[in-house]
Each structure stands twice: as C-alpha cells, then as structure tokens.
Amino acid sequence: MEDLEQFRQHVSQWLEENCPASQREPMQAQEQYWGGRNGSFASEDARLWFERMRDKGWIAPEWPAAYGGADLSPQQAKIITEEMKKINARKPIFGLGLWMLGPALLEYGTEAQKQKHLRAIVNGETRWCQGYSEPGSGSDLASLQCKAEDIGDHFLVTGSKIWTTKADECDWIFCLVRTDPDAKKQEGISFLLIDMDDPGVSTTPIELISGESEFCQTFFDAVRVPKENLVGKLNEGWSVAKALLVHERKLMSEIGSDSPRHVLVPNTAAREYLEFDDGKIVDAELRSRLVDYDMQMHAVGLTHFRTFEEKIAGIRSAAPLIMKYVGTEAEKAKSELLLAIMGSRGVGWEGDAFTQSEIDTTRLWAMSYAMTIAGGTSEIQLNVIAKNVLELPQGGES
Amino acid sequence: MSLVLNEEQRFLQDTARSFFSENAPVEALRKLRDSKDATGYSTQLWQAMAQMGWAGIILPEDYGGADFGFTGLGVVLEESGRTLAASPLFASAVLGASALLLAGNDAQKQALLPAIASGELTLALALEETHHHRPTHIATTAGETANGYVINGKKCFVLDGHSADKLLVVARVSGDTNDTEGLSLFLVDRSADGVSVERTFMADSRNAANIAFEDVHIDSADLLGENGKAWTFLEALLDRGRIAIAAEMMGYALECFERTVQYLKEREQFGALIGSFQALQHRAAHMQSEIELCRSVMLQALSAVDETPEQLPLLASLAKARLNDLVTLTTNEAVQMHGGIGVTDALEIGFFLKRARVAIQILGDTGFHKDRYARLCGY
Ligand SMILES: Cc1cc2nc3c(=O)[nH]c(=O)nc-3n(C[C@H](O)[C@H](O)[C@H](O)COP(=O)(O)OP(=O)(O)OC[C@H]3O[C@@H](n4cnc5c(N)ncnc54)[C@H](O)[C@@H]3O)c2cc1C
Predict the structure, then answer these.
(1) Ligand 1 pocket, residue A379 CB under 6 Å
(2) Do A51 and A16 fall into the same domain?
(3) B361: nearest CB among A284, A343, A383
(4) pLDDT number for residue B1
(5) How many folded domains does chain A comprise?
(6) Last residue of a domain, one of A72, A94, A116
(7) What CATH number does the domain containing A383 carry?
(8) What is the DSSP letter of A24?
(9) Does domain B232-376 have CATH number 1.10.3720.10?
(10) How high is the pLDDT of residue A251?
C-alpha cells in the first residue's frame, strides 16, 4: 500500500513536470494521434508529450520493458491513468494495436512477433485495424468466409472484410480467416497479421450517418501472407479472437468515462439549455430523464471500480460481462438526452447558426448508434449473459 | 366521428402513396442535401402537389381549395412522411392556411388563400424565440406607428423561413414575455426592409431559418385578427400544427418499422433469419402495439379538428407526445436491428432517424406536451 502511495506521488510529480500545459486541455477528435505512416501530431507539444511518455514506458505501462513497456502492475497502471485524469492530461496516442492486438500478442504471439510489432506500436510506427466482420458474418462471426490457403511457404488470402474501422489509414490489419473449410465453424479459423501495403489489399470507405467515413470494406485479392504472420496455432484463431474481444468490450464499456472530444455532458448542458427555478429544472420530464441517467452512470462507475478490485483480489463475478452492454447503452442514452436538453439547438448539422460544440454533440449522437452494434451488439451481449452467466437452456439460436 | 378512413380517404391514401414514391422518394432528399440546394425543396414537386390539390387541401372550394378536411390532410402528410418529401406542405398549406382561416378577415382571405391553394404563395410561421417550444415566450415587439406597426426581435427554428414568400410573425404589443395577453400576429414579406434571414442547416436536411426583424414597418392591414388578442386563436393554430406534424411523423414510424420488419425476414445469422429470434420478435411486436395505439390517437385527433374542436388541446398534446415517443422508438430500433449497415449513410434509415429528432422539436417536445396534458386533466 505504502509503495503504491509513493508511486502515486512519483507519477503525479513526473506528470506535473512533463505534461505540457497545452496537453491538459480538452481535445478535438482531429487532434488525436493514432500513429502509423499516416499519423501526424497536431502540435510540437503533442509530439513532445508523446515522446516523453514513450521514453518513460508509460504508453503501455503494463507491457514488459523489453517491448517498450515499463513492467508495471495493473494497480500501478491504474494510478497512472488516475493521475493523468486528475490533470486532464490527454492520451498521447490512440490505437487498436495498443488496446487490442498488443495484449493478444503478449498472450499468444511468438517471440519474433512480439519483437517485431509491440515496440512499433508503442513507438507509434504502426497503426492497426481489425478485420473480423464480413458482409455475411457479423453477430455470427464464426461463420466467416474470407479464406487463407496454405500454399507452402505462405498463405494466399482471398475474400473481404466489412466495417473495418479506418482501414484506409492503417498500416496493418489483424484478421480472422478460414483455414479449414471442413471443420466445425469455430475450429477452422486462424488469426493472421497482414500488411496493408501488400499487393492485393484494397479498401473502399463507407460513409456513416454522422457524415464521417469511419469504416471501410477491405478486399483481399490473392494476397500472399508469410507463414510467420500466423498468431497462435493454425485453426486455433478463435481462442485468440475471443481473448482479444474481451479487451475490445472492456474498452468500449469505458468509452463514456474518457470521451476524448470536447463535447457537452448532460449535467452541464442542462445548466446552459434548460430553465431552472429555485435550483430545480422546471421541465419535469427532462429532470427525470437527467436523474435517471446520472444515477445509471453513478452505478456504472462504481461497477467499473468493483470489477477492477475483484480482478486484483481474484474474485470472479458476473460484473465484467455486463459492462459492454450497460456502458454502451448508457452512452447512447446520454447522446439522446443531450439532444432533448438542447432542443432545436441540438439538431443543427453545419454552418454558423450553431456553435462548434453543438454540432459536435449532434454528430456524436449520430455516432453513438455504433456503440451498441460494434464489438458485438447489445443483443449478443445479452445472449452471452443468458448463456454463460445464467446458464439458461439454449434453443436453436446460438 | 369515425376511427376508420372512408372510401374517398382510402383512395386519397393510395394516390398519395404512389405520388410520393414516384415523385419524391428518400433519394430526392439525399440529392437536395448533397447538392446543397438553395431552396431546400423542389419547386417542381410543389407545383405537382398543388395540382393534386394538396396546397389547398384544407381550404374551402370558394378559395380554390380541395376541402378534404384535416383527416384528408393527415392522410397526405403521413404518406409524405413515408418518403420524407421536402415541401412547404406543413409550413404553408397547414400553418399558413390555418392562420388565415382562423384569424384572417374577408379581404385577407380573398387576397391570399387562392394563391396559397395554387401553390404560388408560401407562408412560414415565425413563432419560436428559444430552443424549446415556448409559445408565450415572445419578446419580439410590435410598436404602433401612424399607419401600422414596427417590428423588432429575433425568431429561431422558423420552418421554411428562408424560402417562404411571407412570414406570419407573432409579436408582442403589450405585457411581459410569457403573458398570453398582448400578442398579435402579423403578415410580413420575407423580402421587406429590416428582415434578415439566416438559413440553418439542420440534421434532417430540411429547411429552417433564424430570422431577425430590425425596425420592420408594416401596414395596419397586415394585422391578422384582433390586436393583442392573438392567443385566442394561436393555441388553436398550434394544435392544428401539432396534429399535422404528428401525422407526418406517423409516416416516418411506419416506414422505418416496415423496412425493419422486412429486414428481419431477409437477414440471416447463425443459420437462421434474424426475425426468428424471439429477442427481436418481441420488440417488433411491441412496436406494432405502439403503432396501433398511435393510429387511433391520430384518427381521433385529425377528425377533432373539423368536428369537435373543444377536444383539440387534449388530443393535440396526446398526439404529439405519443408520436414523439413512437418515432424515437421505431427509428432507434430500426438502426439497431439493421446492425452495422444501420449506421451507414447509404441506408436510408439514417434520414428518418435525423428527421425524427428535428420533428420532435417542432411545436413541443414530449415534456411540453406531457405537462400540458396533465394541466388539462387538472393535475
Ligand atoms: C462503427 C462500427 C465500427 C466497426 N468496426 C469494426 C472493425 O473495425 N472491425 C470489424 O471486424 N468489425 C467492425 N464492426 C462490425 C461489428 O462488429 C458488427 O457490425 C456487429 O458485430 C454486428 O454484425 P452485423 O452488422 O452483421 O449485424 P447482424 O449480425 O446482421 O445483426 C442484425 C441485428 O440482428 C441482431 N441479432 C443477430 N443475432 C442475434 C441473436 N442470436 N439474437 C438476437 N438478436 C440477434 C443483432 O443484434 C442486430 O440487431 C464495426 C461496426 C460499427 C457499427
């Protein structure tokens, strides 16, 4: 305990000395640094801040120092996050490599794969995207068809992936591919790393209802992938995928707690957009919706802490399995509530008649619909709870 | 009073459905959006609608109208809602025409109604001054001058405000902001000196504007109804508007719902049609239940306009509150049940989703109408 207190002081002091003032301001989406060959820093301060964190090993503090981490414990890593939040320090880098692929490689990767990819992720040299979903395989991911044929010294990959977030800006993609068409569907899948620069890989952006082009369809036309890019054993990619999905869902469940954008939150928006009388919101409907939301978030926040403490204490409970569902549903409810609070100022789309934060809030509302779909829909989360936690009898619907 | 459509109305429904799907599919709204069309609707479409008699659909034949009554109007609005047809139907043929019917004198009616019915003249109601519907919150002033009035103030969320020929402006001649006494309704040319119009680009890609009035001089002949007594007819006007927009919203709900049910019957996952999963079946069945309830509310509310106006306030608030909830439910479920494709711009569901959020704000959100309904019930 005392050690942790000392560590906290060290962190707090180091951050105070090393985090530039400009990196403690709320950030616009376009200021985020995602690394990779298309990545660029929004400012010199952003670069400095990233480099200092990188050199300290705090980009991925729990990773081994040999791969660019700092060998820290989960408790220590949590302290860094907390102390960063205290001073509103920006995240120096964002990315699926850091959040999802890295942890999976640490568990399943070969030494060569770890050497090649982990440090490159921490250094911001490579940006990764996730190639799971296909046009015919979303919720039923295991039915995927994109195939990799073993042709001696390498695989030949043919097929397509869809909803690949930012594929057109990424350097590498981690993919689920079918390597045994005859096996049971989960048993014929492998996990492959593919360089987006390889001949035969192409992407087409798809526009979202928010007006942004967040995701793509990604095509593989006889792409030659070296054997050493297989993660885990042949036909055992499903285990790797499942381990990685746990990281993805945890990440998405926390999305509300560190919204990177400079947008409104319901409580402060209420003060700006609603009438108060004697300290109370006059509109009874909106007051009731706001308190429902605040109480929900309070409970969700406490459950986040509980799952962390349970993990350290080695206690298993159902809590981690509900977090993606409750976290993303709350995030969606928040956006809908914000629009209701802002009235006709909450439905502006562009132009000077609305403030930038109003427009950002409306567009984020449109994006919020993705939360309960991406990373496994709410319906699938509920199915998983019913099956794995409650062990309810399963009908025909897996 | 009847809770079913008669034969003539059913015929109108068929006609309107094929008219809008042929002449104004959702694709047309997409084109208006992508080309950043300056008018925001197709004037050709509006002319065709006028030829169908819809610009004057609630107007008596004496004024060149089709005299279909509000139930007929509701049928057409609902069908226009199914394709999100952008037109001055709501702003001009409902709000504009109703204002003149309720408050205009003979000369004003003679002068303007035939032009409204033919679609040549379009009107817009400049009422709101805050971002939530507060119909008595009027700070815009109308001072008396030697031969008329001078208007000063700012309006927001004026539907079709950037394209309408004339504006119906609610202004205060006496009393404090929030008083019902002391309000007047004036007709102002959009191009008059001192009127500045800023088009607002909204999520629904339809049309609205913020409008400022700076020393705008108008003639005393452009006062509608009695000076300072506009509230006596304004509530009735707004209730007509609320019921009409609710009818249009019924169209969004039905279209989203039907497209979603269709998708449940087409999309396969886990070797089965997703519509076979009870988790989704129950939610679709729930939506069907809500739609049935809203259908009854709408039929009653629309016929009340012509037959039992004393029930209008309660029914208008019931209709708008319930339809606000229905479009929220059906659009949200439509996106969710489509999965990843549901959040793409290529799928038209997104247009309904966004239009629904704007429509919810038109003439009162759910909180406004729940509060009003409760007050009318005496609690
Ligand atoms: C913004 C965004 C970003 C994404 N990024 C990525 C990415 O980077 N990489 C990637 O691989 N994928 C990505 N995805 C894809 C995402 O994982 C899938 O969209 C998701 O798994 C749902 O699959 P689907 O779209 O095929 O919907 P479907 O599986 O077709 O689902 C349609 C509807 O049916 C419901 N349903 C399906 N099965 C059942 C059942 N058994 N019981 C009850 N209901 C059911 C679903 O919940 C949904 O409501 C992204 C999606 C979005 C929206």
Answers:
(1) yes
(2) yes
(3) A343
(4) 61
(5) 3
(6) A94
(7) 1.20.140.10
(8) G
(9) no
(10) 79
Distances (CA, A) of B113 to A299, B55, B101, B171: 58, 10, 9, 22
- What distance in Å separates the CA atoms of residue A258 and residue A261, rounded to the nearest whole number? 9
Chain A residue numbers touching B272 (CB-CB < 8 A): 396-397
Q: What stretch(es) of chain B map to CATH 1.10.540.10?
A: 7-121
DSSP-based three-state secondary structure for A259 = coil
A232 and A258 belong to one structural domain? no
Cβ atoms within 10 Å, residue A59: 24
The answer, for A338 touching chain B at a CB cutoff of 8 Å, is no
CATH class for the region spanning B7-121: mainly alpha
Q: Which residue has the tokens 């139930």?
A: B71
Nearest C-alpha in B relative to A289: B367
- The answer to whether A284 faces chain B, any CB pair under 8 Å, is yes
CB-CB neighbours of A137 under 10 Å? 19
Q: How far is CA A285 from the centre of its chain?
A: 33
ipTM of the predicted structure?
Answer: 0.96
Return the SS3 of A276: strand
pTM, two decimal places: 0.95
The one-letter code for the residue type at B214 is E
The model's pLDDT over A38-97, given as tens digits with 9 standing for 90+, comes to: 899 999 999 999 999 999 999 999 999 999 999 999 999 999 999 999 999 999 999 999
* Residue ranges matching CATH 2.40.110.10 in chain B: 124-228
Same domain, A306 and A189: no
Q: What homologous superfamily does CATH list for B124-228?
A: Butyryl-CoA Dehydrogenase, subunit A, domain 2 (2.40.110.10)
Asked whether residue A106 is domain-assigned, the answer is: no
pLDDT band, residue A253 (cuts 50/70/90): confident
Q: How far is the CA of A324 from the centre of ligand 1 (A)?
A: 14
**pLDDT of B215 over the 70 cut:** yes
Cα–Cα distance between B85 and A253 in angstroms, integer? Answer: 39
What range does the domain containing A69 cover? 2-94
pLDDT of residue A397: 46
Q: Does residue A241 lie within any of the structural domains? A: no
CA–CA dist A266, A281 (Å, integer): 12
Q: Are residues A180 and A82 in the same domain?
A: no
